[in-house]
């Protein structure tokens, strides 16, 4: 085997080791009501909307969010889509938690709420599913 191949393989191996050690752990923030809020793929609040979402989760009147907080569920959010209209650009998130059957089987994500965040105004709107409308969240 030539020296160039050995150096190349060594570089690839070192790169793989570094990548495998790069832990993209989730930070868990404990709020005063013992709710765990998981920040996805970061060790800190990294996006401007993360802070808005954390405040929403802590102060929301949404019954499903309140129930998850009461049951000390780890509330997570997933960016689902970006909706661009004539007047706004909305980031669409679903907030929820993981559930599984006994023994940890059939793990799935349960959505507790859908929120839209206006990127220009930096305001949260709750999605009212039955009426298919957005309601500005004011807290």
Describe this structure in words.
The chain is of the alpha+beta class. It has one domain (25-136). Helices cover 28% and strands 37% of the residues. The chain has 3 helices and 7 strands. The protein has helices at 3-21, 48-59, 63-70, and strands at residues 27-30, 36-39, 74-84, 89-99, 108-118, 123-128, 133-136. The protein has a 7-stranded mixed beta sheet with strand order 1-2-3-4-5-6-7. A hairpin with a 4-residue loop joins β3 (74-84) and β4 (89-99). The longest helix is centred in the first third of the chain and has 19 residues, at 3-21. The protein starts with a helix and ends with a strand.
How many domain regions?
A: 1
Strand content: 35-45%
Number of helices: 3
- Residue-averaged pLDDT, rounded? 76
Pick out the low-confidence regions. Answer: 7-36, 39-43
Q: How far is it from the N-terminal to the C-terminal residue, by CA?
A: 67 Å
Order of strands side by side in the largest beta sheet?
Answer: 1-2-3-4-5-6-7
Sequence of secondary-structure elements: HEEHHEEEEE
Radius of gyration: 20 Å
Largest sheet: 7 strands, mixed
Which term fits the overall shape? Answer: globular
| Structural class assignment | alpha+beta
**Total number of strands:** 7
Proportion of helical residues? 25-40%
């Amino acid at each position: 085997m030539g020296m160039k191949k050995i150096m190349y393989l060594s570089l690839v191996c070192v790169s793989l080791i570094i990548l495998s050690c790069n832990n993209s752990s989730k930070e868990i923030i404990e709020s005063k009501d013992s709710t765990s809020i998981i920040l996805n793929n970061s060790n800190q609040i990294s996006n401007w909307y993360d802070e808005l979402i954390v405040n929403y989760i802590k102060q929301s009147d949404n019954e499903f969010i309140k129930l998850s907080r009461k049951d000390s569920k780890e509330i997570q959010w997933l960016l689902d889509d970006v909706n661009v209209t004539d007047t706004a650009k909305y980031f669409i998130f679903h907030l929820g938690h993981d559930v599984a059957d006994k023994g940890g089987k059939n793990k799935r994500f349960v959505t507790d709420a859908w929120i839209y965040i206006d990127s220009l105004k930096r305001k949260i709107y709750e999605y009212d599913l039955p009426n298919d409308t957005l309601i500005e969240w004011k807290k």
